[in-house]
Design brief:
The chain is an alpha+beta fold. 18% of the residues lie in helices and 44% in strands. Among the domains are: 5-70 and 178-205; 73-113 and 124-173, Helix Hairpins, CATH 1.10.287; 416-518, no CATH class. The strands form four sheets. Strands 8, 9, 14, 15, 16, 17, 18, 21, 23 and 24 form a ten-stranded mixed beta sheet that branches. Strands 1, 2, 4, 7, 10, 11, 12 and 13 form an eight-stranded mixed beta sheet that branches. The longest helix is centred in the N-terminal third of the chain and has 46 residues, at 128-173.
Length: 527
């Protein structure tokens, strides 16, 4: 007996999907053979599982190949009907061309008046102006008929091309191409008469999902909104219509066993001919060790005849993975097309901070620091960044666990203007008896906050770092004794200012340093 079944639930992993297909059948007690037909070819045979309740006992399960004609007869008839329609259009246009040619021939015969006497009589019958009108009519009529013929011939050429393609397609249909599918044969024993729901589950390849995000920052309210989405695609060989969709972060493609380290030998190199070694590991018995994906790596939910109503995405956290249950019913086409599925919308309080390196870039780069206070792990993925409803950049999020603090680069904010320039550079000879040269550099950084809110900005610049004890570098401005909340100095020569700027406030930061070195040395690395 063939069971009429429908896909009930799909769990999508990174590179495959777990399908749960349900069929309902009324059976007497005793043994029965049941068939799930029309299954995709790329089923993993080791992943097959069947659940039919306590009243049914599974005695045997077998996966077999089935071949049938790929193109149904109804599609062949549609092509044949279209061929007849196009041939009829071509015949109609050919008739129009024949009629036009007859009309042209009549006009030409009328105009070809032969004999000198006949020509004189015609001229005598018409006044010169009437004769000119008749000749004009004759010329215009012929042009019109020629244009009709050209248009009809052009249309016939198009229809002939269509006809050629249709006949080729029909010829291919008649070659009776066979399409390979799978079917599952079940042998069960029913303890008592009744209606049973049989759930068949299996794993197929060519399905995947990846996370994607829209980050929207409200700079006035210090709120970071995150639209958490999934890009789902599949080309498994069957369409997913109105299914319950789940997205899993598990990685069934990774072996469940911890990899083993082989001894790491070293020795004196000796030249020898290359030896071809097999890529698989060979056991002591001489057999290749094989690892395969076991069906028990996938957990099948118990079937409930009344589907659970889900008001929002539910998160099921396991020992090593997270499962997102998408609310409602979803349809995913079988053509590898991208489907954007919304998972949830989150909002976090955020601390905004601007960073700038004016020496390298005259821009202020906005960074948001927030804590993932939701139950959702934010998987690594691409994010579109919007600042006050304006798209500013694309970024990549790393994996962010619940309750983990994270920083997000939000791009350039042109509401802050920054200028960096060299104010002065001068060399000083320490005197006739001195053997030292001294060069002093003086830079100025100007920052203005043109936004409607106050901002916190960190500005970095640098002084040279000496790699020779005879070269002395001295920081003259800003005055530095030790790190503070507003000024820090790194061992790599970086100077970092932290400034709070109110609306329309402007600040100037000066950097001044000197370099002293022996006169007989030539320095490298100076600007």
């Amino acid at each position: 007996m063939i069971i009429q079944s429908k896909i009930q639930s799909v769990t999508v992993y990174k590179d495959r999907a777990l399908i749960e297909r349900i069929g309902q059948v009324d059976l007497q007690d005793g043994e029965h053979e049941l068939i799930f037909s029309g299954l995709p070819e790329a089923i993993d045979p080791e992943s097959l599982q069947v659940n039919g309740g306590k009243n049914a006992v599974l005695q045997n399960i077998k996966l077999t190949d089935v071949f049938h004609e790929e193109v149904p007869e109804i599609e062949k008839k549609q092509i044949l009907d279209r061929i007849e329609e196009v041939e009829g259009q071509i015949s109609e246009l050919s008739d129009r061309i024949n009629n036009t040619n007859l009309e042209k021939a009549f006009l030409q015969n009328l105009a070809n008046v032969t004999g000198e006497s006949t020509k004189k009589s015609v001229i005598a019958m018409f006044m010169p102006e009437k004769l000119q009108e008749m000749l004009k009519f004759y010329s215009e009529k012929l042009n019109t008929l020629d244009n009709l013929n050209r248009s009809n011939n052009k249309e016939i050429n198009k229809l002939n091309n269509q006809l050629q393609l249709l006949k080729l397609q029909y010829k291919q249909f008649n070659q009776k191409r066979l399409k390979a599918e799978k079917q599952v044969n079940l042998k069960i024993h029913l303890k008592e008469v009744g209606t049973i729901n049989i759930i068949l589950s299996y794993v197929v390849m060519n399905a995947s999902w990846i996370p994607t995000y829209d980050l929207r920052l409200n700079s006035e309210e210090n709120k970071l909104g995150i639209s958490y989405n999934a890009i789902v695609r599949q080309n498994t060989g069957e369409r997913w219509d109105e299914i319950n969709l789940k997205l899993s972060t598990a990685r069934p493609q990774v072996s469940s066993s911890t990899p083993l380290l082989n001894p790491w030998f070293i020795n004196i190199y000796q030249h020898q001919s290359p030896v071809v070694t097999p890529s698989a590991k060979i056991s002591e018995e001489g057999d290749y060790e094989k690892r395969s994906l076991k069906s028990e790596e996938f957990a099948i939910d118990d079937f409930s005849e009344a589907p659970m109503e889900i008001a929002e995405v539910k998160v099921e956290t396991g020992a090593s993975s997270v499962l997102f249950a998408i609310p409602g019913f979803i349809s995913i086409s079988n053509n590898n097309e991208e489907h954007k599925i919304g998972i949830t919308t989150l909002e976090f309080a955020t601390k905004l901070e601007y960073n700038s390196v004016p020496k390298l870039s005259p821009f202020a780069y906005l960074t948001s620091t927030a804590t993932n206070s939701s139950d959702f792990p934010l998987l690594a993925g691409k994010a579109n960044v919007f600042l006050d409803n304006s798209f500013v950049s694309s970024a990549m999020l790393k994996l962010i666990a619940p309750n983990e603090e994270f920083k997000t680069s939000l791009g350039v904010d042109e509401g802050i203007t920054i200028e960096h320039r060299l104010i002065n550079k001068f060399a000083k000879d320490e005197g006739i008896f001195s053997k030292k040269n001294k060069i002093t550099y003086e830079y100025l950084v100007e920052i203005k906050n043109n936004k409607k809110i106050s901002i916190l900005i960190k500005v970095k610049d640098q002084i040279p770092v000496s790699q020779n004890q005879e070269i002395k570098v001295e920081l003259l401005e800003p005055k530095y004794k030790e790190d503070s909340e507003t000024l820090k100095k790194g061992i790599d020569g970086t100077i970092e200012w932290t400034q709070n700027l109110n609306t329309d406030e402007k600040v100037k930061l000066g950097l001044k340093f000197s370099i002293e070195y022996p006169k007989d040395l030539v320095l490298e690395g100076l600007e």
